[in-house]
Amino acid sequence: AKRLRLFELGRVFERDTEALAGPLQLAGIRQPSRLAGLAYGSARPLQWGQEERRVDFFDIKGDVQALCAGTGELDWSPSSHPALHPGRSAEVHVNGHVLGVVGELHPLWVQRYNLQQAPVVFELDAAMLQVQAMPAFQPINRMPMVQRDLAFQVPVAIRYADMDAALQSALRNEPLCGIIRS
Fold first, then answer.
1. 168: three-class secondary structure by DSSP
2. Do 99 and 8 touch, CB atoms closer than 8 A?
3. Are the beta carbons of 154 and 163 closer than 8 angstroms?
4. 104 touches 84 (CB < 8 A)
5. Is 10 exposed, middle or buried (0-12, 13-18, 19+ CB in 10 A)?
6. What 3-state class would DSSP assign to 56?
7. Closest by Cα among 178, 53, 66 to 122
8. Which of 68, 46, 44 is nearest to 56 (CA)?
9. Which of 9, 93, 125, 160 is least enclosed, having the fewest CB within 10 Å?
10. Separation of alpha carbons 59 and 75, rounded Å
11. Cβ distance 57 to 39 under 8 Å?
């Protein structure tokens, strides 16, 4: 496949001496939920109107920002994750807590899996994503917005500032200044 977008939501297993045994958990092992994703290949599907370019860190950073829109302000700092390329990876923080990591796969892994380019990956704490504010519904306007391109032919003696003032007064439903005549 030349272009991939994958994600997975699931549990990971981390050693934690304070984790207690439970019905679905082992003692000494913490099992937090994570949301992970991978992007490989071109940034957009192939089309004639745009040049092909490879997906990069900033594409996935934008995806993560959109995914975290309700969490608050995101802070980014350099990451030293062993699976990620040094200098092309970052930790994501929300309100002082680490949300996860984003970056290119380390060159050793790219070479080991014989990939033609490095995929960009992310792993985020799913529990932190679930507490973000949900978007509020706003009713759809029954009258769709109309945009028009208007062209005017006016004498050279009329200044743009006068035309703009007349337009602004018309938008405020004030009487026209007398510049525009029928």
1. helix
2. no
3. yes
4. yes
5. exposed
6. coil
7. 66
8. 44
9. 160
10. 17
11. no
Only one residue has tokens 């950073």, namely: 61
Cα–Cα dist 69/176, whole Å: 44
Cα gap 33→12, rounded to integer Å: 6
Q: What is the pLDDT of residues 123-178, one digit of tens each?
A: 999 999 888 887 788 888 887 776 666 677 888 888 888 888 888 888 887 555 55
pTM above 0.90, yes or no: no
Residue 40 pairs in a beta bridge with 4
Closest by CA to 69, choosing from 38, 51, 94, is: 94
Would residue 25 be called left, alpha or beta, if left means φ above 0 and alpha means ψ between -120 and 50 degrees?
A: beta
* In the block, residue with structure tokens 């679930």: 130
How is residue 166 written in tokens? 């007349």
